[in-house]
Design brief:
With 288 residues, this protein is α/β, with parallel strands linked by helices. The chain has two domains: 74 residues, Immunoglobulin-like (Sandwich); 192 residues, Rossmann fold, CATH 3.40.50.150. The strands form four sheets. Strands 10-9-8-11-14-16-15 form a seven-stranded mixed beta sheet. Strands 1-2-3-4-5 form a five-stranded mixed beta sheet, with no helix packed on it. A two-stranded antiparallel ribbon has the order 6-7. A hairpin with a 2-residue loop joins strand 6 and strand 7. The longest helix has 18 residues. It is globular, with a radius of gyration of 19 Å. The N terminus is likely disordered.
């Protein structure tokens, strides 16, 4: 296992011509990135020096995967993550969410202080748990849901790495779970969700963002407590601009609950002078 040399071990090194060059601890990887339409800043030699690269030109394929460890650990925004290469080019972390993790940790800490009790947070489509870990580190009681048992197991490993035991783990289809929670009268003080463009559950259920997200938000609204704190929505779907997400939250939440909605782009970032790389959008409704 490779140990990161510093706490925030992720860094965008360069991007361009449909690719991105990133450092995860001591591992440097080159991977596809369609939105990087500009010219790279670093030399071809710097890119060729990457430990491994991934492309989708002739099917999903790693070059140099054998040079990498089976898994390694890094810390980003004070959160420990187990990383490993997957056949889809993912590693078990979406570092463009770092600003959201920081916001979640700080906001949950402030909510706990204001309430005199831990806020309850539901994290849907929760992947390897970055948002769950951030909220729990801020003092929240978290319910983590994903349709993939493998990803929930991965997230639970990350929780153990961070010495966290305040997270409830659920493997289920999001809408089935939400409807069941509504029938049970369960309430949450906050919801985090990062729905996929298209997803398929282990039971064969399908999720299409453009078709299903309004219903998802309606179900989340029904689960909010009498003193809700926030709903944080992010997406990596082309066409889901920050304004689109903001409009959805406005209709689902602000129109009936008041509060405020803000939105923006998620960015991969590196050292000063490295061009920020847009990697999805976010919007959040807050009651305070």
């Amino acid at each position: 296992m490779k140990t990161p040399p510093r706490d925030d071990a992720y860094e965008l090194l360069d991007s361009g011509r449909g690719r991105k060059l990133e450092r995860f601890g001591s591992v440097v990887l080159a991977r596809p990135c369609a939105q990087a339409v500009w010219t790279p800043s670093l030399s071809p030699e710097a890119w060729a020096a990457a430990d491994a690269s991934f492309d989708r030109e002739d099917g999903n394929r790693w070059q140099g995967r054998g040079r990498l460890p089976d898994h390694w650990t890094i810390r980003a925004e004070g959160i420990g993550f187990h990383l490993a290469t997957t056949d889809f080019g993912h590693l078990g972390i979406f570092p463009e969410q770092r600003a959201q993790w920081r916001w979640l940790r700080e906001t949950c800490r402030a909510e706990a202080a204001a309430r005199g009790a831990a806020p309850s947070v539901l994290n849907l489509f929760a992947y390897s748990g970055g948002s769950s870990l951030a909220a729990a580190l801020g003092g929240a009681l978290v319910t983590h849901l994903d349709a993939s048992r493998g990803m929930v197991d991965w997230a639970a490993e990350n929780a153990r790495l961070n010495s966290l035991d305040t997270i409830r783990w659920i493997v289920d289809d999001a809408h089935k779970f939400l409807r069941r929670e509504v029938r049970r009268g369960r309430k949450y003080d906050a919801v985090v969700l990062d729905p996929p463009t298209y997803g398929r559950g282990e039971g064969g259920e399908t999720y299409k963002l453009e078709r299903d997200l309004p219903e998802t938000l309606s179900l989340c609204r029904a689960l909010l407590s009498g003193e809700p704190a926030f709903v944080l929505l992010s997406a990596h779907t082309p066409g889901c601009t920050a304004q689109v997400l903001e409009n959805l939250l406005h209709q689902a939440l602000r129109a009936g609950l008041g509060g405020s909605v803000e939105s923006g782009e998620m960015l991969l970032e590196g050292a000063p002078g490295v061009l920020p790389l847009p990697s999805g959008t976010w919007a959040r409704w807050t009651a305070r």
